[in-house]
Amino acid sequence: MAGGRVTVAAMIVCLLALAVLPFVADKFTVQFVTKMMIMAIFAMSLDLLVGYTGLVSLGHAAFFGISGYILALSTPQYQAANFWLSLPLSTAGAGLLALAIGCLVLRVTGVYFIMVTLAFAQMLHYLFHDTGIAGGSDGMYIYLRPDAGIFGWRPFDLEKFGDFYFVVLALFITAFLFLRMVLRSVFGQVISGIHVNEGRMRSLGFPTFRYKLASFVMAAMLAGMAGYLSAVQFGVVNPDMLGWHLSGTVLMMVILGGMGSLIGPIVGAFAMMLLELGFQSLTKHWQLPMGVAIVLVALLLPRGLVGLASLRSRNKEAAGA
Amino acid sequence: MDFATFLIQLLNAVQYGLLLFLVASGLTLIFGIMGIINLAHGSFYMIGAYLAWSLSGRFGNFWVAVALGIVLTVLLGMLLEWLLIKRLYQRDHLYQVLLTYGLILIFEELRSITWGDDVHGVPIPDVLSASIPLTDTLAYPVYRLWMSGVCVVLALLMYWLIQHTRLGMMIRAGASNRDMAQSLGINIQLLYRLVFALGVALAAFAGMIAAPVSSVFPGMGGQVLIICFVVVVIGGIGSVKGALVAALLIGLVDTFGKVLEIEIDGFKALPELAGMSVYLLMAIVLLWRPEGLFWKKL
């Protein structure tokens, strides 16, 4: 199929462009692209829930934020945490939290799920906002980025923005390949089946609750990884990292790009952040054009930006035939 | 805690609960009848409060501001339904979430452009500015009692409208089967437009009457929206009765959660956790009854 080959070619071109970027671009661009890739990991993780399992979560930032908080709290005050320990620790923490929350929220479906995930994320937001843990509403600084030293050998230095860029790029590609593998496995088939018709999957003998829980935990761990990287990049964590604005934004990225594909959320994350940057440079009131853009996408693009591309290629095929 | 303090807290809890009910009932009606999940509902509350502030400043009279505000927000609701919401009835909830999230951004930014980002206060109207003395030192403001009274009257009116009028019968018919109701000659489009405008006006009205007791500030919409979600989830989506019970329950838990922190401070009962108490309540209700207290299949 020509379309498939074009997609692969486009992906290779994009990857090459990402790989050479730090050698040609200035610091601001490199850091901005780093941020975009982190958000793309976050959006992909949510797509596993929304697009594949059919669970619309409006509280996904809880796992993004908790992971950042785990890093901040486990970092000694004037020392750097160890990268090889703190990354698994933060991700596992997000996974454990998802296991506990998932057991509760997966009891409900549909609109209830949207509202309940939102409420749980808010609960966490208030926990960090109102109590003195980790600096309350002001948040907490991470003065030194995690140290990547392992037995005296240090493969990269996260304090250098170029090195950090490549670490994020590597994790971004890993997350993509990991999700692709998961979705092509039997597990992926089962969760897609649950999305279409959960009752039928259950009658086929699949313990659907456990599959949904596994998907929920997996998505949370990937979101946690993104949150960890974000905390490292900005050197600060605050309750907004767990707040519903971020949950909403990442859901917008998934829908904007097009759910149910892995490319969709990546395109969505990149497009949304570029739009934001563009609008911000135009006006102080950038949320106004942003809101209008979101409303237009909801009304006019039922399958997101990716859907737009496939629509065009289909039109071309139709014209050719 | 002596009796007077307890009474004051109880009245505060009931007043807060009833106010929440006013906002949440619009949310639950719009969902129960039209199947629309409306994230922008909190924005209408915020718009109401800002309208009360700016209009009462311009006309020098709170009541004129409220009356004008209601007219404006009903029109806003009808306009939004006609322009945007009606295109979402047949669509997945996800797109409703997306569109109404976009609306939040638009309303917040329009608010910032028109009214600025400052915190404002609205004076309590003179007629209701008195207080009822309870003891030598404690008194209870008449305005808060009036708020509770208005909310109760509106709740009764809503009950009467839905259960005992021809319009309510049509609304219920539309909620249970849209196509059938339409083929019987009921103008569903007009009906939905009215319901949406009613929901918007209820939220805005709540914002208007709340403006004199709580300040008017950016972000007040988001705050109220989240709490109303909790109310709706606990009460059961689409159930107005459930929203009333849940709102009162949350009013009690929230108010007494904050008071008890002083009471058992010596006990080390983490006083900061009061903000979480309502969410905890929701988690318990969900464990016990995943569909909320008063859920019924529509």
What's this model, at a glance?
The complex is a heterodimer of chains A (321) and B (298). With 321 residues, chain A is mainly alpha-helical.
How is this structure best described in words?
The complex is a heterodimer of chains A (321) and B (298). Chain A has 321 residues and is an all-alpha fold. Chain A has 13 helices and 2 strands; from the N terminus they run αααααβααααβαααα. Chain A is globular. With 298 residues, chain B is mainly α. Chain B has helices at 3-34, 41-59, 62-83, 93-115, 142-164, 166-176, 178-183, 188-210, 220-235, 240-263, 277-288, and strands spanning 131-133, 139-141. In chain B, β1 (131-133) and β2 (139-141) form a beta hairpin. In chain B, α2 (41-59) runs antiparallel to α3 (62-83), α6 crosses α8 (188-210) and α9 packs across α10 (240-263). Chain B starts with a helix and ends in a 10-residue tail after the last helix.
